């Protein structure tokens, strides 16, 4: 059943107001990975609580306790739990999104202030941190609830909401909450299926539904030696230097063309079948899509299927940065006393953080030992999450296919995503339900990057898509 015309008309008529709301959300720098912004993450939770209550949702901000980040004990931002409707004749769908964002500084290379939504009238781009990941999609749900509230219409399904503020930093605390609230009579009792809008089309033209995500293991490798930073003219050539050791060890993790060098890690990958390979061959994707989204002609392969499988079904290892290294402009002649290299591995079936940890630790220690350095090495796993693959034959996916065809006039591609949303698998396992990823944004949105954007048309048509999905879900078998 398509969404009523009144809902679609309401969304069209209120498009500018929805964009104003997105601007308010983007203006709150709810960066979960940086302790000094924790108050902003909490502020964002209160902003959303107000928005949800205004459209009739009963909301609870659930305390998730404390955690330690970079040596500092911090209160976790609350999970936002909400309910609307309790009709036993209707299906109940759980909507998940996250209200935290990745860090962003203008000096990273943004053309504009990352926390001020800029509307580029020429291109239709809504530019700002979190516009696509994940504040736009989250507000897409609220926009639909607002339309129904304003029009005095009942929703076609019961809604449960779980919005979190730590997704970009390992979803700390949420797994425990989901498991604790999964039983009969508990908060998640009665959920028939889950919908997550927190990923992107493969390209800029074809909508997709996503039935798989890679997992993640994130490591910090700390090398220390000197009691304090040293003058390289005084100590260079006389002491073991932590940065030199770190660069050596980090250079042994992965080849420039993406081959992971840690023994054992690749052996766990599920073998590729001809049937599975054919799925990638069929997708609307080209090497030019990855290169235009990346902003450079840098694809590892000129083969479309190889590139797609590199993102969707093989693991990858990325080196993210070095904490403690000299990184400012100028030419400071320092030997840093302690440096920490950060890298992560995106995991695929049958890899898990538990079964790859030992391979990583052994290999890093062995490579460091080869240096004969008197510095010390510590390796820490910062966070992890398992990969997830769902059945796209479920009615949840059928409803989303129909909704996409109605709104975009196209049958969506069925994709697996290279990113990670650790809680997806927790929902699937703890609630024993099907989970669907129904993206709003495009492949060139630049999530986690500079000048992140969401196209106006994706925000508004995407809002209609989410609403239409709820109607299709109410009648699909
Ligand atoms: N939109 C999902 C997303 O970006 N997820 C993050 C999750 C994460 C884990 N650690 C840091 N971020 C991702 O990087 O895939
Ligand atoms: Zn996200
Ligand atoms: Zn993200």
Structural descriptors:
2 domains, binds zinc ion, ArgE/DapE_CS, Aminopeptidase, alpha+beta, 14 helices, metal-binding, Cyt/Met_Dipeptidase, protease, binds the ligand NCC(=O)N[C@@H](Cc1c[nH]cn1)C(=O)O, 477 residues, Alpha-Beta Plaits
Helix content: 25-40%
Alpha carbon gap, first and last residue: 12 Å
Rough shape?
A: globular
Just give the CATH class of the largest domain.
Alpha Beta
Cofactor: Mn(2+)
Family: Belongs to the peptidase M20A family.
Pfam family, one: Peptidase_M20
InterPro entries: ArgE/DapE_CS, CNDP/DUG1, Cyt/Met_Dipeptidase, Peptidase_M20, Peptidase_M20_dimer
Question: Can you give a write-up of this model?
Answer:
Keywords: Hydrolase, Manganese, Metal-binding, Metalloprotease, Protease. The active site is at residues 100, 167. InterPro entries: ArgE/DapE_CS, CNDP/DUG1, Cyt/Met_Dipeptidase, Peptidase_M20, Peptidase_M20_dimer. The protein is α+β, with helices and mostly antiparallel strands. The protein folds into two domains: 5-214 and 388-475, Aminopeptidase; 215-269 and 314-385, Alpha-Beta Plaits (2-Layer Sandwich), CATH 3.30.70. It has 14 helices and 20 strands. A six-stranded mixed sheet has the order 1-4-8-5-9-19, sandwiched between helices. The protein has a four-stranded antiparallel sheet with strand order 13-15-11-16. Strands 6-7-20 form a three-stranded antiparallel sheet. Helix 1 crosses helix 4 (131-151) and helix 1 runs antiparallel to helix 14 (456-475). The longest helix is centred in the N-terminal third of the chain and has 21 residues, at 131-151. The model has no long low-confidence stretch (mean pLDDT 97). It binds the ligand NCC(=O)N[C@@H](Cc1c[nH]cn1)C(=O)O and zinc ion (ZN) (2 copies). Residues 98, 133-134, 167, 198 line the site of one zinc ion.
